[in-house]
Amino acid sequence: MTEQTVSKERNSPIPGLDPAATPLLGLGLGLTGLALGLRPRLAPLPLALTAIAAAFYRDPDRVTPGEPGRLFAHADGVVLGVEDVYEHRFVHSDCLRLVVSMTPFDVPVCRSPIAGTVRFVEQVSGEYRPAGDREAGDRNERVYIGLDTEWGPMLVALVAGPLGRRIACRVRAGDRLEAGARLGTVRFGARADLYVQRDTVQLLATPGEHLVAGVTRIGNVVAL
Fold first, then answer.
1. 3-state class (DSSP) for residue 63
2. Of residues 175 and 187, more confidently modeled
3. Given 34, 37, 157, 189, which is the most exposed site by the fewest CB atoms within 10 A?
4. pTM for this one?
């Protein structure tokens, strides 16, 4: 088994949480301590809110199996469907688009489905439709990350939802990634789309299936 790569900027004083959670949790724990000193009966409220906030900022370390030719889930969430599309930004080919809806309670970190080199990063402004909207993937605020792999190009799109409107991209062109490496973060009920060439990959994920990024096997590369 091969351990995933870890971005240099990810160093966090709290294991398993995004570094962005540190000031928020510090504030929550400080308010809890203040409440304990002044009105102990109120302390459970800020403590509970702090725990909920921590859940939204989860970023656990995961180990992706070293299985060449295998695709792993690019996001935690439920498969909404697989669509036939033509991808014109990076792949430039007929593709299958695997759409994954990320609920507010899923880990918000998206990961590379396969080993490769980042060749394309583009942010596109847009709307903030619900993840289940059929046009959300083409109209919402989104970040495209194109990967050059041994078997051809693949594209991951991080798509913002109506609540979590900020997308944090953790990679840049030229980065070499292992399967399961962190690509970026999108929170509070967003979606993540994966574009693969129709004749290159056999997708195994089915609508309604719950995926775990970097762990769930979602497809196989077809030998050319």
1. strand
2. 175
3. 37
4. 0.82
**d(Cα 207, Cα 105) in Å, to the nearest integer?**
19
Q: At how many degrees (to 10) do helices 44-56 and 21-38 cross? A: 170
pLDDT for res 104 = 83
pLDDT digits (tens, 9 = 90+) for 186-201: 988 799 999 999 989 9
Q: What is the pLDDT, as a whole number, of residue 28?
A: 57
Cα dihedral value 102, 104, 109, 115, nearest 10: -10
Q: φ, ψ for residue 22 (rounded to 5)?
A: -55, -55
Tell me the C-alpha distance between 218 and 201, whole Å.
10
Given a cut of 70, whether residue 48 has pLDDT beyond it is no
| Distance, CA of 99 to CA of 103 (rounded, Å) | 13
Contacts of 111 (CB under 8 A, 6+ apart): 4, 62, 64, 72, 73, 74, 75, 180, 181, 182, 183, 213, 214
Q: In the chain, count H helices and then E strands.
A: 3, 16
pLDDT on residue 19: 67
**DSSP-assigned beta bridge partners for residue 58:** 17
How far, in Å, are 17, 24, 28, 33, 67 from residue 193 at the CA level? 24, 29, 34, 42, 22
